[in-house]
Amino acid sequence: MKKIGFIDYFLDEWHAQMYPEWIEQASGGSMKVAYAYGKIDSPSGVSNVDWCSARGIELLGSIEEVVEKSDYLIVLSPDHPEFHEELSQLPLRSGKPTYIDKTFAPDRKTALALFELANQHGTPMFSSSALRYAAEFTGIEREGIDAIVSIGPGRFENYSIHQIEPVISLMGSSPERVMSIGTADSPGLLIQFADGRQAEVRHFGEGAPFAMAVNYAAGDSKLIKVESDFFAAFIRDMITFFETGKPKVDPSETVAIITIIEYGLKAMTKPFEWLELRS
Q1: Which of 56, 99, 154, 243 has a CA-to-CA distance to 203 between 20 and 30 Å?
Q2: pLDDT higher than 70, residue 279
Q3: Are 145 and 171 in contact (CB under 8 A)?
Q4: How far apart are CA 240 and CA 58, in angstroms?
Q5: Rounded to whole angstroms, how far apart are CA atoms 244 and 156?
Q6: Which whole number is the average pLDDT over 7-27?
Q7: pLDDT tens digit string along 192-223?
């Protein structure tokens, strides 16, 4: 059995709670989350000691120990990407397959630095929103897409990746500029690509589904509402990545996604003005 190590800002969070069971089930018991490290205890939940004790996971005192004992590594901290660079330093030097949870990095500069570090040490690594794996998106025709309008719930800061990830997977990694077109309560971002294609991302209330309207240059269109079990598909791909050391997500797409999020936040301070994406 292959052992997986968690590295987190604090362990009492939803992704860390769900991944162990999903991984063990999807791998048929051939993989198990065995070790964990948390930089701090949850400010509003249970301690790392209690979290691990309740799940039969061994809490280790350092990232070094987790890296040494584990076959595969998962850097979590899904709502605190500002800690990913710190938490990933040793994993990305290890040569062991490493998954870094969403949102991959707080900015383009950090995203590039993480990929460079992994490349320097021959460490297989990838990151993705689970929404990339929704069957409604993976099965759609990509050729000829002219425009996309996407909607979803949550705050732009930590939930925009769930809309931007599918947009980039469908339209490619050549975004050129962004414009804030939303309101304080319903943030919106317009993304223009190098060839003139556009995608609009809108954030509504918690009751909003993940959905998308896709228009094709040929004149037809599709309306998509995500109803498939995208987390199950995501976990299966993570397991394949651990087994093969070969990520399916192109790094250029991940960097493009992070760039859009970074500049999208900047654009919201200057509504209805184009902001060029810097390389």
Answers
A1: 99
A2: no
A3: yes
A4: 24
A5: 34
A6: 97
A7: 999 999 999 999 988 899 999 999 999 999 99
**Would you say 36 and 8 are in contact if contact means Cβ atoms under 8 Å apart?**
yes
Predicted TM-score of the model (pTM): 0.94
Q: Which residues pair with 99 in a beta bridge?
A: 74, 126
Q: Hey, is 270 helix, strand or coil?
A: coil
Q: Which has the closest alpha carbon to 87: 37, 52, 19, 48?
A: 37
Residue 19 CA to residue 40 CA, distance in Å, equals 20
Superfamily classification of domain 130-228+261-276: Dihydrodipicolinate Reductase; domain 2 (3.30.360.10)
- CA–CA distance from 206 to each of 57, 125, 131, 165 (Å)? 33, 32, 16, 19
Q: Express each pLDDT in 226-255 by its tens digit.
A: 999 999 999 999 999 999 999 999 999 999
> Pairing between strand 275-276 and 221-225?
unpaired
Question: In which residue are the tokens 């425009």 written?
Answer: 147
DSSP 163-215: HHHHHHHHH-S-EEEEEE---SSS-EEEEEETTS-EEEEEEE-TTPPPEEEEE
Instruction: Sketch the domain layout of the chain as residue ranges.
Output: 2-127, 130-228+261-276
Report the alpha-carbon distance of residue 97 to residue 74 in Å, rounded.
Answer: 9
- The answer to whether 182 and 188 are in contact (CB under 8 A) is yes
For 173, phi and psi rounded to 5 degrees? Answer: -105, 45
**Rounded to whole angstroms, how far apart are CA atoms 13 and 30?**
24
Which class is 2-127 in CATH? alpha beta
Residue 104 pLDDT > 70: yes
